[in-house]
Amino acid sequence: MRMGMDYYPEHWDRSMWEEDAKLMQDTGVSLIRVAEFAWSRLEPTEGCYDFAWLDDAIVTFARHGIQVVIGTPTCTPPNWLVKEYPDVLPLDAQLHPHYPGVRGHRCFNSPSMRHYSELIVEKLALHYANNPAVVGWQIDNEFGLHECNCEHCNLRFRTWLQDKYGSIESINSVWGTVVWSGEYSDYSQITTPLGGTRHKNPSYLLDYKRFETDSVVEFQQLQLNILKEHCPNHFVTHNIWSYPMSLDYYKLCEKLDFVSLDYYPSTSPEKAVTSGYSGALTLDLTRGIKRQNFWIMETISGPPGCWMPMWRTPHPGFIRAFAWQCIARGADTLVHFRWRSAPSGAEQFWHGLIDHSNVPGRRFDEYRELCNEVRKLAPLMEGTEVQSEAVILHSHDQFNAFQMQPQVEGMDYFDNIKTIHRAFTKLGIMTDVLSEKEDLSGYKLIVAPSLFLLDPDLASHLEECVKNGATLVLMPRTGVKNENNVCWIRPLPGPLSDAAGVTVAEYDPIGRDAHTIRWQNKSYSCSQWCDILTPQSAEPIAWYEDDFFTGQTAATVHTLGKGKVFYLGTFPEEDFYVDFIRDAAEQSGLHNFPGLPEGVQISIRANESTRYLFLMNLTRKQQTVQLDRTYRSLFDDRNIDQALTMDPYAIEIVVLPYKNA
Amino acid sequence: MRMGMDYYPEHWDRSMWEEDAKLMQDTGVSLIRVAEFAWSRLEPTEGCYDFAWLDDAIVTFARHGIQVVIGTPTCTPPNWLVKEYPDVLPLDAQLHPHYPGVRGHRCFNSPSMRHYSELIVEKLALHYANNPAVVGWQIDNEFGLHECNCEHCNLRFRTWLQDKYGSIESINSVWGTVVWSGEYSDYSQITTPLGGTRHKNPSYLLDYKRFETDSVVEFQQLQLNILKEHCPNHFVTHNIWSYPMSLDYYKLCEKLDFVSLDYYPSTSPEKAVTSGYSGALTLDLTRGIKRQNFWIMETISGPPGCWMPMWRTPHPGFIRAFAWQCIARGADTLVHFRWRSAPSGAEQFWHGLIDHSNVPGRRFDEYRELCNEVRKLAPLMEGTEVQSEAVILHSHDQFNAFQMQPQVEGMDYFDNIKTIHRAFTKLGIMTDVLSEKEDLSGYKLIVAPSLFLLDPDLASHLEECVKNGATLVLMPRTGVKNENNVCWIRPLPGPLSDAAGVTVAEYDPIGRDAHTIRWQNKSYSCSQWCDILTPQSAEPIAWYEDDFFTGQTAATVHTLGKGKVFYLGTFPEEDFYVDFIRDAAEQSGLHNFPGLPEGVQISIRANESTRYLFLMNLTRKQQTVQLDRTYRSLFDDRNIDQALTMDPYAIEIVVLPYKNA
Amino acid sequence: MRMGMDYYPEHWDRSMWEEDAKLMQDTGVSLIRVAEFAWSRLEPTEGCYDFAWLDDAIVTFARHGIQVVIGTPTCTPPNWLVKEYPDVLPLDAQLHPHYPGVRGHRCFNSPSMRHYSELIVEKLALHYANNPAVVGWQIDNEFGLHECNCEHCNLRFRTWLQDKYGSIESINSVWGTVVWSGEYSDYSQITTPLGGTRHKNPSYLLDYKRFETDSVVEFQQLQLNILKEHCPNHFVTHNIWSYPMSLDYYKLCEKLDFVSLDYYPSTSPEKAVTSGYSGALTLDLTRGIKRQNFWIMETISGPPGCWMPMWRTPHPGFIRAFAWQCIARGADTLVHFRWRSAPSGAEQFWHGLIDHSNVPGRRFDEYRELCNEVRKLAPLMEGTEVQSEAVILHSHDQFNAFQMQPQVEGMDYFDNIKTIHRAFTKLGIMTDVLSEKEDLSGYKLIVAPSLFLLDPDLASHLEECVKNGATLVLMPRTGVKNENNVCWIRPLPGPLSDAAGVTVAEYDPIGRDAHTIRWQNKSYSCSQWCDILTPQSAEPIAWYEDDFFTGQTAATVHTLGKGKVFYLGTFPEEDFYVDFIRDAAEQSGLHNFPGLPEGVQISIRANESTRYLFLMNLTRKQQTVQLDRTYRSLFDDRNIDQALTMDPYAIEIVVLPYKNA
In this predicted model, what pLDDT tens digit does every residue of B367-409 receive, in sequence order? Predict the structure, then answer.
């Protein structure tokens, strides 16, 4: 477990390097990430490579005990490349080039882009393979889908479809193109989604999204092959951007050694409570991508801002607290962005730890304290992992499908996941967040938010988990479609109807209209959607209290083998989820942490012998947490009272006896 | 009078046809509309026609006594056509093609589009001319203006102008192009409205809109000629979309046998009261297009939704009630959209009567009841028509002119018509809504909302009607311009000043600022616009109560021949219109229906011997209507109390003695 | 001092000219501006000039004692020019032409545009050089930046950069292009800002804005050269549009004889108080451009409106009052827009003094009264000027830099200037508003709002002014960057730190979050930004009352030589500025006018012997002003009480004894 810094030697006069390196060393920084936007400096003109300046920088920092992660610079094709090989630039739906500006001005399927990317990466790999200071690589920067409609993309899309479907008849049949005369009689008629209207056949659009992900994965793989060949002892990672995301991170990260996350929790006082919860979800999602610990490759060290207005500066304690949140939820290394704010360029006001003034200040002092703490506790954290008996399912395909076809005003797939995850976090129940494609056996509680696209394999796997003892929670808009984004012609929830023991007789997309349900003799508001349920073998457990469906069934439970399936026919308010999940968790034998104040989170990292409990007040208010007994703080061996008063952004870490959550 | 269904055989496995046909027959459906988006199935590749599947479908349904309307599929040019003949695609103001997506991707002036449309329509016409199950045709689908700036459109626009104006000097003079150096020295300099700014010479823009309508009309006429030639015994119609509309429906429908309307009243609880009123206006407008009864070619049978979020599901009674509203206001056949929701394509969630589940449910039961009722009452309705002594004028030209030049914040031509029509409907006074071009003689009360463009012919005709006894109501922004969208250089209301006996001394575009007027010793709020009036031969009847024009005249009445002309100088709140129209109607000898609760409507269909009164509660609330005496319900021969309690969406139809409204 | 009218002879039938001229003469109009959009009438086809109609018009008006300003018509290239020489049209960031519509459809660097502009201007200059009725010229109309990305613009931009920077290495270094691989290896790689993202290197963007200004200035200079050569006895001016503005008006007006302003104060009742203050700033800015009196070339005479909805009609007294406001703040001639509303074209509803009705009305009567007053007082005003001892600095560069990089939600450079200027105006303290580049010596109080870009020369000049006795007020975001838009690597306020005796330890971009400061034992709210200050040699004078920086310094004062420097670390509410400026002004020996009601303004024009005090109630309410003694009205020699009651839009002008403000 170590502390690092994003550093851009090319932004600073050489005379500053030595001083920066020394100050880092004194502060406790042992790693820097470099070069990930430096293509124009590494290859100023075509084929003329200049790595000398980077060598010098690495030597300088190595002298101070600082190791190096090199970012491949392919996110920023230089001007000579763009000018001489215009196929590099992506074309929008009206075939307009996306010219250079805020990075990412490249088509992943462009032959020139691929060729020159491979060349620069190979040169770098060969040059740094045996540099003792270099420990690993970051490929590119924050991949995302970047719509392109160039001829290369069109050709590759057609090939991709041919590989997947074979005949054109098969595509017509699977996509249901007969609607609105969309049938193709020849592959050449298929194009990427061109302009005019965003609203096209949803099966086609979903496949296009998958193709886009595959284009990014392929582009990354070209680099990964080179790096693995020439630098077998180096790790290779990529720094993902946040959620929600159209690009399928599960596919993207499959071949990487580990995942890195760029993490910028909101500093806004208005989000002082919610941003900690959103962050917890992001971190759990990141840990779930490869089901292992991860790195933070960038995180907040000052007010972000750029072309958009600046955010608030991080409140005292904020930088430290959110760093500990990362560790608590599975981060093993923290690289802060960035050492010092850039004096020029479009990102001048995305602040570093040190301001343009070059005078280390309040935030720097806080960071230094953090480094000291991490150094002290790192040996204990070694080999520990987050453990969870509950899991929430997540899918980029579902997200994309809902984006294409918003079901109803106010319904957002990812927001619903956030609400459910927040309920877990408020209850102090650790939860994994995993791809639907994962093996889910072993989990006691599985929450599956809106399995809109549902193929029989997933349905079977979930049914199997239930039969073996799991509790499964289903929600509206489950089983609507098959994986091709075509509706099942059968009652909802489609392939899970039998497992749930219930069918949907009718539904009402209520959107933001106010409605309530009754569950365990209490009323809860609900919104977005109302499935009016007909229990088959299931038991009703909640009922609607409004509208023409007053008294009809709103939720059911169905016992199946050793487990049970809940079907929630609507989206209730968060209080319901808290009560319902507490109940379901208790029935499943999961412990919760009673009485956590709003905004205070816990997390547990454990190895075979020890469990470390993190208590984190991620708010601007003093808060009191009621513990089950006294503990000793790992920071300073202080005694911690049962009634623990936590200052704003205070953190405590204690040893938790095994068998006693 | 019959019940029909929109049905897409090509969306379903053939094995389902028989079952669907049988269920329709059992339910009371005797008509289907088919094929209107099936070009790619009817002509899978250029010149290869395949009608066998449609023949089979028609035979199957005919076996169950179901007749067929065929839609020509020209709204959805297939991919082979788009790919091989790219002139099919319309070009926007920056010459970007509008690629296929949500239908309508075609330029009406494209030679290829016209050629291949004629071919497919001719093939269809020849093939189905003598098919006994086929009764008529729907041309294309929901025509609208679709901006195109291709070379063909440019050439035709120039020809159109040459036909209308002759010399280029004449255009310069009529349009007043001298302003801002817009004079043309050659026809080649005139183009369709290209990009840069939407704000151009308004005379030019209005003529361009007229040209656009004529392009659609011409495109339709090509098909109409073919259908009338080959299928002389079939009717030909078109299904118009809703209002307001830039395309001139009056011109569009001139040569059709009758008009069809696609009618989707809002299911939103927030619009539970207003949507019935908007619908009444839409139906009256539709009836007015050809001054005769019409068809509903599509109407709601489940929650609409598609790319946009879904609406609420229709409340119990909603589908039935709005079906009866259509009949009450002049529909003779109702075709519901659609039998079953599409499993694929962009319109998956525009629900049919049967859900994807394929299990007929609550809505289906309601529809079945409706079919039974219609079957029972159809013989009585035969040959009946809606009668009215009041008329509201409407014009697409006015609408377009106001769209180009919004006069003031909050003023909307069509919204003002809605408000006036709602006042009539609340009073239970039937009103026609007609084109300004119609012969208006015979009406006792004529309301002319904002005759912005006013040519002397219309002014003379209105004056003649007044002299013969009609009451005419004028409103602000009347007589501002001639038909070329050029301002009259004379006091407002221009050519109607003499008839109104009043001139506008000055005006203040008050927008949303709060003002009041006093009329008959009562204050009413007003907004949008204040004409400060100078009565010439007219009498003042209302006065402003605010601002620097306090005490000045806000409205006048002028006796002219046997009639009179009211000039309202502002747009008062709806309560004013209710009071004012009640008053004007009484003076004109028109009966109103006192005490109608909000949202409850009446309508009367009559033939020479009998009048049928429809009472419709188009709200979610129970409401009580006070009748003048007891009646018997035509549905079940029940006695109806004078104090009639109507459940949500309840309908009653009774016989009304002649000479006793 | 004279009254004029914008008149378009080409819009009216010749038969109307004589009558119009006569009515103008009777009313007191002695000047018209003509021809500024009449290119298509002056040169109907290429090379065929027709000035006969204009000659006739000028003769007609001259006969009635009316002189003429000719506008060059280059704002509206005619259709033949656009069609034959398409390089005239500007291309947007996606290279789409901006087609004709609302004027200004021309690229300033287009060779054809320049060539044909020079030709028409030369023809006009030669033709009218010796016409006795013609007194001067207006070049083009309301210049603004009009983004163009054509090849000519690209070439000129590169030349412009080469002239400024020489080598490509120099550009890379000055702009800091190394960030995100933006380095150029060849000039050919530099383009104008093409599409994809607006967010690019800010140094590059700022230079591009400067280049755009220079393109306009160069285009204007071509005309200026011709006019000065052929018409040495005529003045040449340009009518600028309002503020804020990206185009640098200081550069634009450098070579003109005087500046003209187009001034349209808002008629909205909601802005009834604020629009007078905004107008005062606009007028002060205009007077400051060349530090001399100016013309109003267009101003309101009826409700504006056009493609946008119409404004309210000017309230009685409004036209007169705002005309006097112009004179009070330095206007020497007023030309009202326009004589009569246009009957055709896109600007039909931008009303003239006379409506389309052609019946002079209330507004006309008010204008006639105004003409009488001006005629009476003109001799007194001759040679008088506005005098001020306070100055607010303004810069188009700063404005542009902040536009590119909004610092924080709610912070707007120009709005902050408005607030400060309003405080001065409420206090009745006259203030100049000048370019930062001006010599500021002699001012007692200098307010410098956010000198974001701060080069050492400006810092030195300000420091010098202070040492010589001035009071300087600085505000947040001062000294952030050098003139190349690159951040200083030194503590804020950068080059002014020493003069201010303070450094910024840290800042918090608080945006719209509520905070307060304490100054002179009173709390004031503040927003946008909080600099947490470390006084070096300065004294703290205000402190924060919230957040983690409670009790820290919010403002300081530093004595330097004979003067002092205030540094305000945040943007307080307007009340603070009023109190603070009153205090600072008093300390600097500036008199204020105590007790002015909100919306009532004063201004003073003076010559060596006499001072004229203007009292202006620019609101819709009656207001009472407390004077120091009785005066006599210059309008009618009435006695004016010490407690002066002013009706809505009332104006008084009195002689103010020297040495007694």
Answer: 999 999 999 999 999 999 999 999 999 999 999 999 999 999 9
Which numeric CATH code is attached to C2-146+218-382?
3.20.20.80
C641 torsion bin: left (phi>0), alpha (psi -120 to 50), beta (else): beta
Closest CA to C268 of C647, C623, C619: C619
- What's CA A334's distance to the chain center, in Å? 16
pLDDT, tens only, B161-193: 999 999 999 999 999 999 999 999 999 999 999
- How far is B362 from A47, CA to CA, in rounded Å? 71
Contact indicator for C36, C75 with CB cutoff of 8 Å:
yes
Bridge partner list, C32: C5, C68
**What H or E segment, with its residue span, contains residue A112?**
helix A111-128
Q: CA-nearest residue of chain C to A359? A: C491
Both tokens of C251, joined, read 């550069």
What's the mean pLDDT in C536-550?
A: 98
- Those residues whose C-beta lies under 8 Å from the C-beta of residue A351, and which sit 6 or more positions away, are A301, A302, A303, A304, A305, A310, A313, A341
Given A200, A491, A509, which is nearest B346 (Cβ)? A200
**B269, closest residue in chain A (CA to CA):** A513
Torsion (CA) C113, C118, C124, C130 in degrees, nearest 10: 160
Helix (H/G/I), strand (E/B), else coil: A455: coil
CATH number belonging to the domain at C398-426+439-587, selected among 3.10.110.10, 3.40.50.150, 3.40.50.880, 3.90.1720.10: 3.40.50.880
Among partner residues A185, A487, A490, which is closest to B80 by beta-carbon distance?
A185
Shortest Cα distance, chain B CAs vs residue A554, angstroms: 17
Same fold, B390-587 and B600-656: no
With both helix axes pointing from N to C terminus, report the angle between C151-165 and C202-230 in degrees, rounded to the nearest 10: 100
**Test mutation, A96, A174, A180, chain B, max B CBs within 10 A:** A180
Domain B2-147+212-381, classified CATH 3.20.20.80, yes or no: yes
Compute φ and ψ for A637, nearest 5 degrees: 60, 20
Instruction: Match 């909100």 to its residue by tokens.
Output: C598
Q: Which of B168, B206, B180, B58 is nearest to B124 (CA)?
A: B58
Matching CATH number, A2-87+105-145+217-382, of 3.20.20.80, 3.40.50.2300, 3.40.390.30, 3.40.50.150: 3.20.20.80
Chain A residue numbers with beta carbons less than 8 Å from the beta carbon of B344 are 175-179, 201-203, 485-487
Which pLDDT score is estimated for B146? Answer: 84
CATH classification number, A600-656, choose in 2.60.40.1180, 2.60.120.680, 3.65.10.10, 2.60.210.10: 2.60.40.1180
Is A103 marked as a binding-site residue? yes
Residue C586 is among the residues annotated as catalytic for this protein: no
The arrangement of secondary structure in A390-587, i.e. its CATH architecture, is 3-Layer(aba) Sandwich (3.40)
Q: What is the pLDDT of residues C6-52, one digit of tens each?
A: 999 999 999 999 999 999 999 999 999 999 999 999 999 999 999 99
A–B CB contacts, 8 A cutoff, strictly below: 169
DSSP letter string, C364-381:
HHHHHHHHHHHHHHHHHH
In the annotation, is C436 catalytic?
Answer: no
Are B200 and C102 a contacting pair at CB < 8 A? yes
Cα A241 to Cα A286: distance, rounded to the nearest angstrom: 10
Task: Note the pLDDT tens digit of each residue in B22-57.
Answer: 999 999 999 999 999 999 999 999 999 999 999 999
Query: Where along chain B do its domains lie?
Result: 2-147+212-381, 390-587, 600-656
- Supply C544's token pair: 């924060």
Q: What is the pLDDT of residues C350-409, one digit of tens each?
A: 999 999 999 999 999 999 999 999 999 999 999 999 999 999 999 999 999 999 999 999
